[in-house]
Amino acid sequence: MRIRYIPANPSGNLTAFVLNAVEAKARAAVAAQMMARCPEGFEQVGFIDEASLDTPLPRLDMMGGEFCGNATRAFALLAAGRRGLDETALSISISGAKAPVRVELDMRQGNAYADMPLPGALVTRMLGNLEIPIICMEGIEHAVVCGLPPTPQMAQAVLEVMPPEEAQGVLFVQGARMTPMVYVRATDTRVWESSCGSGTVALGWYLARMAADGEHGYTFEEPGGQLGVRVRMQGGRAVRAVMGGKVTLGEMREIEL
Fold first, then answer.
1. CA separation (Å) from 115 to 43, 97, 162?
2. Which residues pair with 124 in a beta bridge?
3. Residue 60 and residue 3: Cα distance in Å, rounded?
4. Which tens digits make up the pLDDT trace of 29-85?
5. Which end of the chain is less congested by CB atoms within 10 angstroms, N or C?
6. pLDDT digits (tens, 9 = 90+) for 107-142
7. 126: left (phi over 0), alpha (psi -120 to 50) or beta
8. CA angle 203, 106, 230 (to 5 degrees)
9. Is residue 255 within 8 Å of 128, Cβ to Cβ?
């Protein structure tokens, strides 16, 4: 099978957008091969419905049916470029999100900021004597590990105490630095991501949840660069979170799988 794809780099979170029509049941296998064989070293793969690009709601499905904020904003920039309408905002339909996600665009600067789904709950689990906060979001849950160095052994131990979900993240936080690891059940992949949009929102929400009303901004140093989030608090709860930064898109390429 010859796969046509477009490489995207949203804040270091290397993503492949597949242009071929691939059946849902085959996407996990195609994604696994691309992540193993493509020279770009992709961390994740999304599948575009090309026919939807000219509609009011372009559609993107991630490799395991998960939600990804970085892929959402990169796809919005790609779709807007294809449409050629000089749009400054575009709503995207993406797997793992119940409602369309609005993305603010600056086509000249290559910036995209996604109006992200808010976390729905905060739960905790114990790992020995360590209490692990877990932020529950649409399509993914993120555990926060503060003050400990990121290691595969610790990440696996945290995954094992988390409630089973289709996608799970472990966020290692050391000051303003955040190192994300994401597990996707459908592809059985554990990826140390260069940046993580949903993880950035989860951590920003976690830090802002007890803050005063108003907008609170956070910028995290992630392995691939900086990623920012703005959380608006109102009446003691978060009512909006906007996440984003730079996106770079490449030219269409092909690979034989």
1. 22, 12, 26
2. 133
3. 16
4. 999 999 999 999 999 999 999 999 999 999 999 998 888 889 999 999 999 999 989
5. N
6. 999 999 999 989 999 999 999 999 999 999 988 999
7. beta
8. 20
9. no
| Among 48, 61, 49, 58, CA closest to 17 | 48
Residue 148 DSSP symbol: S
How does DSSP assign 104-139, residue by residue?
EEETTTTEEEEEPPPP-EEEEEEETTEEEEEEEETT
The residue with tokens 């052994």 is: 153
What is the distance between the alpha carbons of residues 165 and 147, in angstroms, rounded to a whole number?
25
Helices 69-83, 197-208: inter-axial angle, 10-degree rounding: 120
Q: Which tens digit of pLDDT belongs to each residue from 146-182?
A: 999 999 999 999 999 998 888 999 999 999 999 999 9
Q: Round to whole Å and give the CA distance between 165 and 185.
A: 8
**Cα separation, 242 vs 244, whole angstroms:** 7
Question: Which 8-state DSSP code applies to residue 219?
Answer: E
Map residue 71 onto helix, strand or coil.
helix
Report how far residue 231's alpha carbon sits from residue 82's, in angstroms, rounded to the nearest whole number: 31
Q: Tell me the Cα Rg of the chain.
A: 17
What is the model's pTM? 0.81
